[in-house]
Amino acid sequence: MPLLRQTIRCVLTLLLFGSGSFCLSQPAWAEDPDLEARVQALEQQNQRLLDLLSNSETTAAFQTVSGTGVCTVPSSPDCLPESGCDATGKSADGKGKDDPLSMSAKWKHGLEIETKDKKFRVHVGGRTQFDGVWLQNNREAFIGAGGDGPADAVDFRRARLRVDGTMYGFIDWAVEYDFVNSVNDNVGVQPATETNVINVPAPTDLWVNFKDVPWIGNLTMGNFKEPIGMEHATSSRFLDFMERSFNQDAFTGPFNNGFTPGIMAWQNFDDDRGLVQSGFFKNTTNVFGYGIGDGEYAWTSRLAYLPWRECEGAKLLHVAVAGSIRDPNNDTVQYRSRASLRNGPGAINPVMVNTGGFQASQARMLGGEAALQLNSLLVQAEYIGTWNTDAFGNGVTSPLAPLGTVFVNGWYVESLYFLTGEHREYEAKRGAFGRVIPRENFSFRKGLGAWQLGVRYSRLDLKNGLMDGGLVQDVTLGVNWFLNPNMKLQGNYVFTDREAPASAGSPGGSFNGYGMRLAYDF
User: Fold this and answer.
1) 5 phi and psi, to 5 degrees?
2) What are the residues facing 297 on neighbouring strands?
């Protein structure tokens, strides 16, 4: 250490006297006991720092990302062996103080990163659904329906990327885009065909939610689903059949994929047995999350409750009622639905029933829901009716006929059963069923996954008084094979009977078809 000591003395000499000549011999001021003590203290501190830097554990502590459970070494020399801490920054008892913002990653049906205090969370995921559809070539049943008629098709039904999470403990958020939303590239020039329909990104869930808001519980703002319909509230990741019932296309998600810009208050109550939701929305007819025009608002509310719940939700009864008062976009209302098997992108799907656009001063919607789950058996039904006041136009006898109040409605009932013993998980925050967790995952060596059979009857009636938008009904038989919680294969057989709208110039007819889907999400 003499060399190091001599070097320190030379540096101090240069700083104090501006000359290095004093380094050549022992200066008189070096005998000053106070100065000598200060130099020795500097040497001891420097040695401790050198020892810390040479310690492999300390170096790792500087270089390792927070969240490993090891304290980082503080910038001040307070946490040293002399003060009761080891070289890694832990106290002598080994406990230390972890950084509450340190993050750890885990697989929770998708990549999830969360801080130790759980105030910040990020989930990165998405979903893909690849479909094949084969329809019976009954041209008479498709007269006036447009699109590609009964053509067979393969198609990516959905392809979405999503990032969601929590920040600062009380703000939830989600950002999701669908990359296979289809539009006619030559709209107004050519009808939609295979050669001119393209895919464009469109927002779906694009919102923030403030939790623990006084009096109201939660406040959600952005682009999200209006609170009406149980199957509408169910994520497309967890659908029982390849398509929702006719109600989705006609009432709960027409022309905007079911996502509407707005603001909504909601809260669970009675130990998560109940859910109340109410919000104001811009009544839009496009998929891009915006609306332009004076008024054109919608007030939509839903009340759901579980009067009976046992066995951690394996047995339950769900009931709900929902309603919406809507100022039509551009004073125009239109109800229509495509088939329960979609042969290609939405822009070229045949439309089975259609009122066409007609004027109305207001639309009032009322819906009811019920679902009974008994372990592996699920029975579910919904009804939605809509009253359109001061309606005008698109009458059977005249395109400019006063129609009074036009009432249209739709409903479905379905039953599903797990052959392998599983049951649906109920999500209290949605008031709907969620992800299926197989008892054993499929593998080629061991494990069958989960198998489910289902049947559904669906009906949509758009005929009322002078309005004749047609009537369509179908029966869907389905089999779902859940390979694991993130992947499933679906097969559907659909028999459809169509009473064509008056504008079709044909009575319609019936047809059947088959569909298969490979779906996975994370």
Assistant:
1) -65, -40
2) 282
Give the Å distances, CA to CA, from 294 to 276, 327, 329, 330.
29, 10, 9, 9
Q: What is the pLDDT of residue 411?
A: 98
Query: Helix/strand/coil (H, E, C) string of 273-308?
Result: CEEEEEEEEECCCCCCCCCCCCCCEEEEEEEEEEEE
Give tens-digit pLDDT for 300-328. Answer: 999 999 999 999 999 999 999 999 999 99
State the pTM of this model: 0.80
Tell me how far apart the alpha carbons of residues 364 and 136 are, in angstroms, rounded to a whole number: 37
Q: How many CA atoms lie within 13 A of 63 on its CB side?
A: 7
Contact 300, 226 (CB under 8 A): yes
The span from the CA of 252 to the CA of 264, in Å, is 16
What SS3 state is found at 104? strand
The vertex-250 CA angle with 185 and 408, nearest 5°, equals 140
275-294 pLDDT tens trace: 999 999 999 999 999 999 99
State how far the alpha carbon of 332 is from the alpha carbons of 251, 329, 358, 455, in Å: 14, 6, 5, 35
3-state secondary structure of 461: strand
Residue from 188, 307, 316, 322 nearest 251 by CA: 322
Instruction: Count the Cβ atoms, other than its own, within 10 Å of residue 217.
Output: 15
> 376: which DSSP letter?
T
pLDDT (average), residues 515-522: 97
Q: Tell me what pLDDT residue 9 has.
A: 56
Q: How many CB atoms lie within 10 A of CB 33?
A: 7
Is residue 10 scored above 60 in pLDDT? no
Would you mind telling me the total number of residues written for the chain in this entry? Answer: 522
